[in-house]
């Protein structure tokens, strides 16, 4: 690729999305500004500017070109509610403990729910389901299925699941004896064991997933699920410890928890929708929205590599290095990066939205925010767009499967499990900062950091919007899951701790993509700021008037009634990692 093309890569998202042919670019509902370094070429919807720098691009993103599909559904048990998000009608089911009495009816025909795995989601979902069904006075058994010899047996017993009570046993016996099999083992383990799992399932039983990864894997090798089972998904928009912690916090009120999406991929007997909704309600989801299994895995795997983990990791690495190189004290630099994002910025977005972050700044601080936002938006979009395409094409899924197989010795080659990433200077500074942090301190609202982070969030929203995802999915994957689930845990223990203790797929993605965000921000966005590149006023205006802000306001009214509480000593290390460290 020519050098000029490479330097403009961060500005070409909309062009490649709507190209009619190489020599003729037409853009629907999107206005781009590009200007050649040798001449000015004015076109109604396209101007090309200064490709010697990626920030020479003056591309302005408008609202979605591709309207999301209306994901309607019917339930004979739960009340469906229509909401309007940025002009699009969507359907949800509100949760709450006052709905637990409906669970036996919705789970009709199910005598045993098998929860397979004890990783990030398994412990939380199994305990929430068990407690909710007990409150509903249901006789449905929630049974944990684990590999023989697994060290997770001890942890499951400690949580109240035992062989004697019939609530803990071998994985294959549990699969064979369950009417609803909730497959919560790692994505790579699903890819390696799906044939055996399918062969052990009863005809007309229900396979439950909390991630669409397995569908993506099957599609990549030209396969699908067996036709004699139903396939559903309930996907909490947060990691397992958040799902459990908010559920427990909400016991004294009418519920608090993590929002979830649900999907019905196959329904062999008409029960699938009610079972999926019951599962979500039993987990404590404040509201449940519809998606498809394909849309879920694309948005989820993409989101983990974006603002939920990988991108935020890359952002703070880049900014901490910049601030210290400019002479800022290390502790202050950490506070102005990690503490700012995981604390006050996230808390403000959670309760008031992104515009509230901008509006909380002084006039001088707003100008700093604007420079950072304008310089960072398209570099972030560049990497996000590539990442989404890698997920949608199956490339990222294959990468996860292959990486999982490299964790063990194979073909005479050494094992390469993931190592920790918490030993560099920045993370040691973070340990010191947190050790002296006053209780409840949310960190400073640092305008440059805020501008970069909000630009990243808006770029991710735009990618998902252009790809036709619903606003419920966009907001939950790009906003709510970040500020209400992951970032509070990062604030308690640090971004690096989160990167080392989330799901295997997310950990792999963060390690792969965080350096890309770090590099492009350092090489393009920060250089543009230092070179005095003017603020793109059209881009800023679009941010201030974007319809997503109204949609976030609607979703904010449906948020949990309590904020997640994460003490500094919270033990949310994934069981298998705790064993490895011992």
Automatic annotation (TrEMBL):
Cofactor(s) listed: Mg(2+)
Cofactor: record remark: Binds 2 magnesium ions per subunit.
GO CC, one annotated term: mitochondrion
Chain residues that bind Mg(2+) 2: 300, 477, 481
TM segment ranges: none
EC number(s) given by UniProt: 1.1.1.86
Keywords: Amino-acid biosynthesis, Branched-chain amino acid biosynthesis, Chloroplast, Magnesium, Metal-binding, NADP, Oxidoreductase, Plastid, Transit peptide
Chain positions recorded as substrate binding sites: 362, 503
Subunit structure: Homodimer.
Matching SUPFAM superfamilies: 6-phosphogluconate dehydrogenase C-terminal domain-like, NAD(P)-binding Rossmann-fold domains
Record's protein name: Ketol-acid reductoisomerase
Domain KARI N-terminal Rossmann stretches: 93-291
A single GO molecular function term of this UniProt record: protein homodimerization activity
Compartments, record wording: Plastid, Chloroplast
Catalytic machinery residues: 211
KARI C-terminal knotted domain boundaries: 292-440, 451-577
GO-annotated biological processes: isoleucine biosynthetic process; L-valine biosynthetic process
PANTHER family tied to this protein: KETOL-ACID REDUCTOISOMERASE, MITOCHONDRIAL (PTHR21371:SF1)
Source organism of this protein record: Phaseolus vulgaris (Kidney bean)
Reactions listed under catalytic activity: (2R)-2,3-dihydroxy-3-methylbutanoate + NADP(+) = (2S)-2-acetolactate + NADPH + H(+); (2R,3R)-2,3-dihydroxy-3-methylpentanoate + NADP(+) = (S)-2-ethyl-2-hydroxy-3-oxobutanoate + NADPH + H(+)
Keyword Heme: no
Family according to the record: Belongs to the ketol-acid reductoisomerase family.
Binding site for Mg(2+) 1: 300, 304
Pathway(s) where this gene product acts: Amino-acid biosynthesis; L-valine biosynthesis; L-valine from pyruvate: step 2/4; Amino-acid biosynthesis; L-isoleucine biosynthesis; L-isoleucine from 2-oxobutanoate: step 2/4
């Amino acid at each position: 690729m020519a050098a000029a093309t490479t330097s403009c890569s961060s500005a070409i998202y909309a062009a490649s999305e709507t190209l009619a042919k190489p020599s003729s670019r037409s853009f629907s509902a999107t206005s781009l500004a590009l200007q050649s370094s040798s001449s000015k070429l004015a076109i109604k919807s396209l101007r090309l500017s200064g490709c010697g720098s990626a920030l020479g691009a003056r591309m302005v993103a408008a609202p979605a070109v591709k309207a999301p599909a209306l994901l309607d559904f019917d339930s004979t048990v739960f009340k469906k509610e229509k909401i309007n998000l940025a002009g699009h009608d969507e359907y949800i089911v509100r949760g709450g403990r006052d709905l637990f009495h409906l669970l036996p009816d919705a789970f009709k025909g199910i005598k045993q729910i098998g929860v397979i795995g004890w990783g990030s989601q398994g412990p939380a979902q199994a305990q929430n389901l068990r407690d909710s069904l007990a409150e509903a006075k249901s006789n449905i058994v929630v049974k944990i299925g684990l590999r023989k010899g697994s060290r997770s047996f001890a942890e499951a017993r400690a949580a109240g699941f035992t062989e004697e009570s019939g609530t803990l046993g071998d994985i294959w016996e549990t699969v064979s004896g369950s009417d609803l099999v909730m497959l919560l083992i790692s994505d790579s383990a699903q890819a390696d064991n799906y044939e055996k799992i399918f062969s052990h399932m009863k005809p007309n039983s229900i396979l439950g997933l909390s991630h669409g990864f397995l569908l993506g894997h099957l599609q990549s090798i030209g396969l699908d699920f067996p036709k004699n089972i139903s396939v559903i998904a309930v996907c909490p928009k947060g990691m397992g410890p958040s799902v459990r912690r908010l559920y427990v916090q909400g016991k004294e009120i009418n519920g608090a928890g993590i929002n979830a999406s649900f999907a019905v991929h196959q329904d062999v007997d008409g029960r699938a929708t009610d079972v999926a909704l019951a599962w979500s309600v039993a987990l404590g989801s404040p509201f449940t929205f519809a998606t498809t299994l394909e849309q879920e895995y694309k948005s989820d795997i993409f989101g983990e590599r974006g603002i939920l983990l990988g991108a935020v990791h890359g952002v703070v690495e880049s900014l901490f290095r910049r601030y210290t190189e400019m002479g800022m004290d290390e502790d202050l630099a950490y506070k102005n990066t990690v503490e700012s994002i995981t604390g006050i910025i996230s808390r403000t977005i959670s309760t008031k939205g992104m515009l509230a972050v901008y509006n909380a700044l002084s006039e001088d601080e707003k100008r700093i925010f604007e420079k950072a936002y304008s310089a960072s938006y398209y570099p972030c979009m560049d990497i996000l767009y590539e990442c989404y395409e890698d997920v949608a094409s199956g490339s990222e899924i294959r990468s996860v499967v292959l990486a999982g197989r490299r964790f063990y010795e194979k073909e005479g080659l050494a094992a390469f499990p993931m190592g920790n990433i918490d030993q560099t200077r920045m993370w040691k500074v973070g340990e010191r900062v947190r050790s002296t942090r006053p209780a409840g301190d949310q960190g400073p609202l640092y305008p440059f950091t805020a501008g970069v982070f909000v630009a990243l969030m808006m770029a991710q929203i735009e990618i998902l919007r252009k790809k036709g995802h619903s606003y419920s999915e966009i907001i939950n994957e790009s906003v709510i899951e970040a500020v209400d689930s992951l970032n509070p845990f990062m604030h308690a223990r640090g971004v690096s701790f989160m990167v080392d203790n989330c799901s295997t797929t997310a950990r792999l993605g963060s390690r792969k993509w965080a350096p890309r965000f770090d590099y492009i921000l350092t090489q393009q966005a920060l250089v543009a700021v230092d070179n005095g590149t003017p603020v793109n006023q059209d881009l800023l205006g679009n941010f201030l008037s974007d319809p997503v802000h109204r949609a976030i306001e609607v979703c904010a009214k449906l948020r949990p009634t309590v904020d997640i509480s994460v003490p500094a000593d919270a033990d949310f290390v994934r069981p298998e990692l705790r064993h490895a460290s011992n």
